[in-house]
């Protein structure tokens, strides 16, 4: 089965869907609201399930050429004492490697994998109309018909708002996040995450020697500072090495700050000939590093199911049945991890750290199984 597909949103999930459908003979158009297919994010971890999805798209080798396999990781407290360390040899044996790269590098790989004539920028979608045997997409350039519309346009999805006007709105998770790329001038051999009381810091080396760093703090939504780097230093300069040195090696204009929002569970990801994927369907907190990975799973699965069904609505129902329980389960777990990791009451944080320290390594490894053992559909 093939036809005309319009993908709304030119991020990782949208480009993955376009790549997968074009490979199956679909005529695909990607509509991006921004002026360019650019990525303003910082670092990105691709877990084994996401790497397999890219392999299924024929892009795995390009990913490996531009990514760095994680060298070490785990969880520490703010003083640097290890609470949990990941046995990477055993982790890789069970699941495969986790790789790090800049988001812009992944987006470039995926953008180059889609024909230029399929990519349109400065197009804002206004409305999606169900016309039975086709879908009409109303946007700033006019009206187009398609056999399939994929909403891959993020947490504030215009497709979702049009097709599901009563769907729940994104909710603030209770904490804000700073993200940056630091250039310390020397290689950092390992990454990981460190937990404090209502605050966290994580960092990971990138292939070019720079380091991705993020900070998280519990606070009301909407607060901002004139100089976010100074605010990060105020909060995290007394944490363990190399966190102060990484902050010192950062310019103020390199710091991005975003309040963390998540999407409450939707009753369905599909309606007729319209499907949601990625953050438009299941925006989750970043505590499991699974947002981009789940979007890649969505795209690969959707394309495979369209290939194996006789009509689009039936394929989309199968997609919803397969993807929604899994993505929403991972989103719930990510939410729960965030709640625990952000505990700020001293006795609760101390009990949490003790529990993490006493958890056997085998149990920690098993906890990854549900998320990381996913395989692309045949």
Automatic annotation (TrEMBL):
UniProt keyword Oxidoreductase, yes or no: yes
Keyword Oxidoreductase among record annotations: yes
SUPFAM superfamilies xrefs: FAD/NAD(P)-binding domain
Keywords: Monooxygenase, Oxidoreductase
Pfam families named among the record's database cross-references: FAD_binding_3 (PF01494)
FAD-binding domain location: 5-334
A single GO molecular function term of this UniProt record: monooxygenase activity
Identification of the protein by name: FAD-dependent monooxygenase
Native organism: Actinomadura barringtoniae
């Amino acid at each position: 089965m093939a036809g005309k597909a319009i993908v709304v949103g030119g991020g990782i999930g949208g480009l993955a869907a376009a790549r997968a459908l074009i490979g199956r003979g679909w005529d695909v158009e990607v509509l991006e609201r921004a002026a360019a297919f650019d990525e303003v994010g910082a670092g990105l971890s691709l877990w084994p399930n996401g790497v397999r999805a890219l392999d299924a798209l024929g892009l795995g080798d390009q990913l490996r050429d531009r990514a760095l396999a994680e060298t070490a990781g785990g969880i520490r407290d703010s003083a640097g004492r290890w609470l949990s360390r990941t046995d990477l040899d055993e982790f890789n044996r069970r699941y495969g490697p986790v790789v790090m790269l800049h988001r812009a590098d992944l987006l470039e790989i995926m953008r180059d994998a889609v024909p230029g004539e399929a990519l349109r920028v400065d197009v804002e979608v206004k409305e999606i109309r169900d016309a039975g045997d086709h879908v009409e997409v109303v946007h700033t350039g006019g009206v187009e018909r398609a056999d399939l519309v994929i909403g891959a346009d993020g947490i504030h999805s215009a497709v979702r708002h049009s097709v599901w006007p009563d769907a729940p709105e994104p909710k603030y998770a209770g904490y804000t996040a700073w993200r940056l790329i630091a250039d310390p001038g020397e290689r950092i051999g390992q990454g990981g995450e460190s937990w404090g009381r209502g605050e966290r810091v994580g960092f990971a080396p990138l292939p070019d020697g720079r380091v991705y760093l993020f900070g998280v703090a519990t606070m009301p939504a909407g607060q901002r500072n004139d100089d976010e780097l100074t605010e990060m230093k105020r909060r995290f300069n007394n944490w363990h090495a190399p966190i102060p040195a990484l902050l010192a090696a950062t310019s103020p204009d390199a710091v991005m700050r975003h309040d963390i929002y998540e999407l409450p569970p939707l009753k369905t990801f599909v309606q007729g000939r319209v499907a949601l994927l990625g953050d438009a369907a299941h925006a989750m907190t970043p505590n499991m590093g699974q947002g981009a990975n789940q979007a890649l799973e969505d795209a690969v699965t959707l394309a495979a199911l369209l290939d194996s069904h006789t009509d689009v609505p039936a394929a989309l129902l199968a997609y919803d049945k397969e993807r929604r329980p899994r993505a929403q389960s991972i989103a719930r777990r990510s939410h729960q991890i965030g709640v625990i990791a952000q505990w700020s009451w001293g006795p609760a944080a101390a009990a949490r750290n003790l529990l993490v320290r006493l958890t056997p390594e085998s149990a920690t490894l098993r906890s990854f199984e549900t998320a990381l053992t996913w395989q692309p559909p045949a």
